[in-house]
Amino acid sequence: MALWGGRFSQDAKSCVQEYTESISFDKRLFRHDIAGSKAHAAMLGATGIIPKKSSRAIIAELGKIEKMIAEGKMEFSSALEDIHMHIETELIRVLGNEGARVHTARSRNDQVALDIRLYLRDAVDSIVEGIVRLQKALVDQAYANRKTILPGFTHLQHAQPVLFAHHLLAYVEQFDRDIGRLKDCKARFNVLPLGSGALAGTTLPIDREFVREALNFPEVSRNSMDSVADRDFACELLSALAIFSMHISRLSEDIILWMSQEFSFIELSDAFCTGSSLMPQKKNPDIAEISRGKTGRMYGNLTAMLTICKGLPMTYNRDLQEDKEPLFDSLDTAEGILSVYPEMIATMKTKPEKMLQAATDPGLMATDLAEALVKKGIPFRNAHHMVGALVRYCGENAKAMDKLSLEEMQSVIPDADADMLKLFSPLSAVTLRESYGGTGFKQVASQISAWKKRLGKKA
Fold it and tell me: How many whole angstroms separate alpha carbon 224 and alpha carbon 227?
């Protein structure tokens, strides 16, 4: 008979047990469940709700159970439903009635709410550390390529010359926002729910502050109904992970393009590529492609979690058992990405000459010419129109802008001067862009230095 089976006259059918079990996926919570149970048992003893001798025995046996599970010596059964029941059943098997005291003033509703928060605290910290490693790899590549110029793109069309370092630092910024979202999410779920009971608290004189301090929570939840019903934190975390994976996907797309023969800007290490089962010459950027593909499952997990929660009445409903699989899957996926991406970026080789060659089209400096006219007092819209007319002239006459004589330029733009003939080089375009946040050499060097210091403090 199940530990909750006193009201029932017969056991659940085996097919029901198989259908409703969660031990197959929530067993990974065993350390956090035991940590919460130890703190709860200590509180029960300290308040006199159970004898101190019982409290000490429970805590000692929980330590042995943790070791047993860690060593793979516990046999899991769907008949015991979840990790909580497995641990409590073993406790009672060894300690008898003394072990049965552990669930005093506690429900599985607030117990699982605690376990998942404890688990997510560690998981979020681990993912943040992984993102920092990725940022460091990107910053190191930026430093190594601080003078490498390539075309920047809008609409996947060549737009203006930029530093490759500047492009990489754009992703460092995006990943930093991911870290911010993860830390914000942690701050909201880092609240102790234990002590809320099934939904209404308890008549017993528990000390929630005792447990809060023991488990290092900054605060205690204020509303027992919300405590067991809340899965906002799961939705928020899945959202943050989905956005992170979107950033990974965008970086992956750039890497895939850069490695193609049409671009040939980079070369990934053989260790992070695969070949073709048919074509011997192929070297495929599979890590980037798989990471791009995994974004879909991250989005799916978020959608699943939102859908699970959208129609639930207060308070706890068994639907919420379905929160763990999407959470665990997204966390595992993020960990998987971060296990390979930092080293893949760190070992990436660049081809500066190919990048520079792609950025030499003088048309990429058309905006520089328009801004040079602005410096002469010409309104930008008028300058834009003049340069557009010059681009049309060059197209009609099959002549590159950097091959024009001053007279030819002045035939379209009367205000042009000789200095404007010197604008049509990628080096000039980058050198002139020293506005804060721009792609100029000094600006990018300053950003690299700032990121090195910032990431060094996170080490």
Answer: 5
Question: pLDDT under 70 in the chain at which residues?
Answer: 1-10, 458-459
**Domains (range + CATH), the chain:** 13-104 (1.10.275.10), 109-357 (1.20.200.10), 360-458 (1.10.40.30)
Name residue 149's beta-bridge partners: 163
* pTM reported for the whole predicted model: 0.94
Active site residue ranges: 155, 276
Side chain identity at 453, as an amino acid letter? K
Q: H/E/C letters for each residue in 60-118?
A: HHHHHHHHHHHCCCCCCCHHHCCHHHHHHHHHHHHHHHHHHHHHCCCCHHHHHHHHHHH
> What is the three-class DSSP state of 451?
helix
pLDDT at residue 10, as a whole number? 66
Reported as a single tens digit per residue, the pLDDT across 48-89 is: 999 999 999 999 999 999 999 999 999 999 999 999 999 999
- Tokens read off for 127: 């993912």
Q: Where are the alpha helices (DSSP H) in 310-425?
A: 324-346, 352-358, 366-374, 380-396, 406-412
The pLDDT assigned to 9 comes to: 57
Under DSSP, the state recorded for 11 is: P
How far, rounded to the nearest angstrom, does the alpha carbon of residue 94 sit from its chain's CA centroid? 42
Place of tokens 């492609």: 289
| pLDDT at 20 (0 to 100) | 86
Q: Which structure tokens are listed for 262?
A: 């049409």
Helix pair 232-259, 286-309: axis angle to 10 deg: 160
